[in-house]
Amino acid sequence: MNQRNLPEHPDFLWDDPEPKSSYDVVIVGAGGHGLATAYYLASMHGITNVAVLERGWLAGGNMARNTTIIRSNYLWDESAAIYEHSLKLWEGLEEELDYDIFFSQRGVLNLAHTLQDVRESVRRVEANRLNGVDAEWLDPRQVKEVCPIVNIADDIRYPVMGATYQPRAGIAKHDWVAWGYARRAAELGVDLIQNCEVTGFEISGGRVIGVRTSRGRIGAGKVALAAAGSTSVLTELAGFRVPIQSHPLQALVSELHEIIHPTVVMSNHVHVYVSQAHKGELVMGAGVDSYNGYGQRGSFHIIEQQMAAAVELFPAFSRAHLLRTWGGIVDVTLDASPVMGLTPVDQLYLDCGWGTGGFKAVPGAGWAYADTIAHDRPHDLVAPYGLDRFVTGHLIDEHGAAAVAH
Ligand SMILES: Cc1cc2nc3c(=O)[nH]c(=O)nc-3n(C[C@H](O)[C@H](O)[C@H](O)COP(=O)(O)OP(=O)(O)OC[C@H]3O[C@@H](n4cnc5c(N)ncnc54)[C@H](O)[C@@H]3O)c2cc1C
């Protein structure tokens, strides 16, 4: 159990400031991406006349609901570039924000259960190394050394044939990450405005000039969307469509246990992944529900299958009790990669489509998005993720290439 001091409660957020009549930049959505973007706009680019508008409460969306896995071992160069940049920022984040976030580089194992899994995994290890990302291929005995509670018997339904391993990967405490960014952004002059839903955009001569909100009109030099799960609703209001679908994604935790699980284990084939939070809960997630929805809840059969897989891989879990389940809404693209950059409306920017994997991207995406907004052109890390790839066909397909996508 980690005995470090708890961070101060974010009570500075309870009194939301009254929105000003206009800002240089309005960010829609106070999740991880919106808050990190606001912080980097202020700290890296000196742009402090910024409001982050949140329809609910600070970081109450996916940022509050994710299972906190952080890694950068993606297959394609474009993905490795932005996720590895993000991981490097994670490595200095506690110091940069001067805020405890329990970032723990305990490593991530991606299990392989079939010969095809093995081939794809070894290919990914080689691709990772070429991109300077730490990656190893482990045989079943080595998997057991890293995580002694994994069942590596060869007579089970999905035998473990090996795993990729990224030692620098890990987890962090998600709500504290949000509070850390929020606190520092607020100190630099950013207004964090909760209970303020954006309901429309004011566009003049092809350029955004303000937003309509549940707390009145707010003028804006630039507007940056960071509203995971609701992006397509917002872009429709701005007059264009994005190839994004919203899906429920759920997860669960067990009651508290002694620390028994030293790393993070993911399996695409049986579709479960497990880590153990600092307090002791086993944190488990699955894949998205296949239907579209905004319900922040998922289907029972997904959890049932996820539990069956978990108990087979970790027989020790068979007596664990479920404490809590929940769901979020993630926005999914057809190539399982994000959409970032400029839009058909001048000075309106997009950061979305992170699907099941956007928590790990929070520092890197916020950093690159802030640069894009400040200079009104896509940063090099952002450029491959433009909307135009759905026209040119230059997709960055990470489907299945990196085990469960989280
Ligand atoms: C169960 C689950 C497990 C996950 N596990 C992982 C994981 O292990 N690793 C990983 O990397 N990623 C994971 N993710 C994905 C990750 O959480 C998301 O990709 C990421 O959090 C999305 O960015 P965000 O934090 O900015 O989103 P959010 O926190 O959802 O922020 C978007 C905000 O926009 C607000 N908003 C929406 N519409 C409006 C509007 N009209 N006006 C004002 N505000 C609005 C919402 O209220 C919300 O607060 C998981 C997600 C879920 C649901």
Characterise this structure.
The relative contact order is 0.20. It is built from ten helices and 18 strands. The protein has two domains: 18-67 and 174-242 and 335-392, FAD/NAD(P)-binding domain (3-Layer(bba) Sandwich), CATH 3.50.50.60; 105-168 and 245-333, 2-Layer Sandwich (D-Amino Acid Oxidase, Chain A, domain 2). 29% of the residues lie in helices and 26% in strands. It is of the alpha/beta class. Strands 1, 2, 8, 9, 10, 11, 17 and 18 form an eight-stranded mixed sheet that branches. Residues 28-34, 53-56, 59-63, 65-69, 197-198, 226-230, 234, 249-251, 285, 328, 330, 354, 356-360, 406 line the site of flavin-adenine dinucleotide.
